[in-house]
Design a protein that fits this description.
The chain contains 15 helices and 17 strands. With 486 residues, it is of the alpha/beta class.
Length: 486
């Protein structure tokens, strides 16, 4: 059987999907090899979130063809959707598969390879393998992603991680932020049937996974495309219509309902959720989440800017004050929750005054972690052609200021735990400063380390309790164990 090397770029959704693709190929008998080795087939799960991501996708595809000119090089995913013309003209790419066709990877490969055999292209000219077969199998491997209501069902049985499993619950986005191309790469919101999510998580629990993370392109929109009456009966029935394709999630999300159903699954002890929009946090939803002991008090609330004028240009659909209210609601019902966020600096038109407003807002909120991004033009978005583009040196200066603020806020959040008891789910072993430690995370995602004892070496996927002694590194706290609970 042929050998396959896979490489992933981009988000957690892409990571989930490439693990399923690898799983499908292994079940079909393909041999999986590292990407830097010679393979018969190279598959790159691409990313298109920025121009840089597009470039990285092309670089990996070209690297594969250089590694083995006779190999079949397959471009999969978001770059294929948004850059189809470039993909079709790129001689290093033999086969292109868009989003919503990843689940059919194995059968598409089989059809493509059969066509190659019929044309005897590989035998006649190894250096141009695949050039005799249409890259999209006559427009069947790349669909019009903006006009489909079908969720691409994929089921993961195990992951490379041994304690934590990412579970995809939806695809697509209806928000159309002015800087983002993802709605055009992933299409409109399409939610996964709750029954399929429950089945997959149950299987993960039976395979020993104790923690799951719900992920998607815009998980706050989960269920907005479902029929309300069917949902009340416990059924997931999509009713997406053309005139509703840009429907907003506010007020109709079924994410909390889904969390309550997942909470009943035996064997799952921790539930994490991916990035949330602040408007999903209300008095009711905060109280319902707080009533779920398995739900980890770790919330990534996407912000992007603390200035309302900038938020409007970004087409973000909340104000800074609404964001602050959402954070206050979470802190009201959870004890010291971890609040993390994303911030873009140097967005077109961001003045010194607007940046100062963002800094003041970030200082007021006090986050556990902030992911700071310098604005990068993305061709095809409204922001790319906005006036008053901010010079790169200004972006760099502003980014450095926020990174320094982030470091201090993160240290303050972690300091809260010094001297307190904490519970950690152990995940891996790592050597730090010449000493071997077991590393893991608390429920609010603070990383802790425990010194390895001779009789405690095989304790991955074990929950232990202890007292936090202090900082081992800037980002890791040292735990003195009291007991190994399981």
């Amino acid at each position: 059987m042929k050998s396959v090397a896979l490489h992933n770029l981009g988000c957690k959704v892409n990571s989930y999907e490439i693990e399923v693709m690898q799983q499908m190929l292994q079940e079909k008998g393909y041999t999986i090899v590292p990407f830097d080795e010679t393979a018969d087939i190279y598959i790159v799960n691409t990313c298109t979130v920025t121009n840089i991501a597009d470039r990285k996708s092309r670089q990996m595809l070209h690297r594969a063809k250089q590694k083995n000119p006779a190999a079949l090089v397959v471009a999969v995913g978001c770059y294929v959707q948004t850059g189809r013309e470039d993909v079709e003209q790129d001689p290093c790419i033999d086969l292109a598969i868009g989003n919503n066709r990843k689940k059919d990877l194995a059968s598409i490969l089989e059809e493509y390879l059969q066509n190659l055999e019929q044309e005897d292209a590989v035998a006649e000219n190894a250096e141009n393998a695949g050039h005799g077969v249409d890259k999209t199998l006559h427009d069947t491997t790349v669909i019009d992603i903006n006009h489909t209501a079908e969720y691409e069902e994929m089921t993961l049985k195990q992951t490379a991680e041994h304690t934590r499993a990412y579970i995809k619950i939806q695809d697509g986005c209806n928000q159309f932020c002015s800087y983002c191309v993802i709605p055009y790469a992933r299409g409109r919101v399409r939610s996964r049937r709750a029954e399929d999510i429950i089945r997959e998580i149950t299987g993960m629990a039976q395979n020993g996974y104790r923690e799951i993370v719900l992920t998607g392109i815009h998980i706050s929109s989960y269920g907005i495309d479902f029929d309300e009456e069917a949902w009340k009966r416990g059924e997931s029935v999509s009713v997406l219509k053309e005139d509703e394709e840009r429907r907003d999630y506010s007020g109709s999300s079924k994410l909390i309902d889904l969390l309550e159903r997942i909470h009943t699954i035996e064997g799952i002890e921790r539930i994490r959720i991916g990035s949330l929009e602040p408007r999903i946090i209300t008095e009711e939803t905060a109280a319902r989440m707080a009533a779920l002991p398995k739900l980890c008090p770790h919330f990534h609330l996407s912000l992007q800017s603390g200035c309302d004028a900038t938020l409007r240009r970004m087409n973000r659909k909340y104000t800074s004050e609404e964001y602050a209210e959402s954070v206050a609601l979470l802190r009201k019902v959870f004890d010291h929750p971890a609040i993390t966020t994303d911030v873009i600096v140097g967005f077109p038109g961001e003045t010194e005054e607007e940046f100062a407003q963002t800094k003041e807002f970030l200082d007021r909120i006090q986050f556990f972690e902030m992911h700071i991004f310098k604005y990068s033009k993305r061709a095809g978005t409204r922001a790319a052609v906005m006036s008053h583009q901010v010079p790169d040196p200004v972006k760099t200066t502003r980014s450095a200021e926020l990174l320094a603020m982030e470091k201090e806020q993160s240290k303050q959040f972690r300091t809260h735990y010094v001297g307190r008891e904490a519970e950690v789910l152990l995940e891996e072993t790592k050597e730090i400063g010449g000493t071997e430690y077991l590393l893991g995370h608390t429920r609010d995602y603070v990383k802790l380390a425990v010194s390895v004892k001779e009789n405690k070496k095989n304790v991955a996927n074990t929950v232990i309790c202890g007292r936090v002694q202090g900082f081992l590194t800037d980002e890791i706290l040292l735990l003195s164990p009291l007991e190994f609970s399981k």
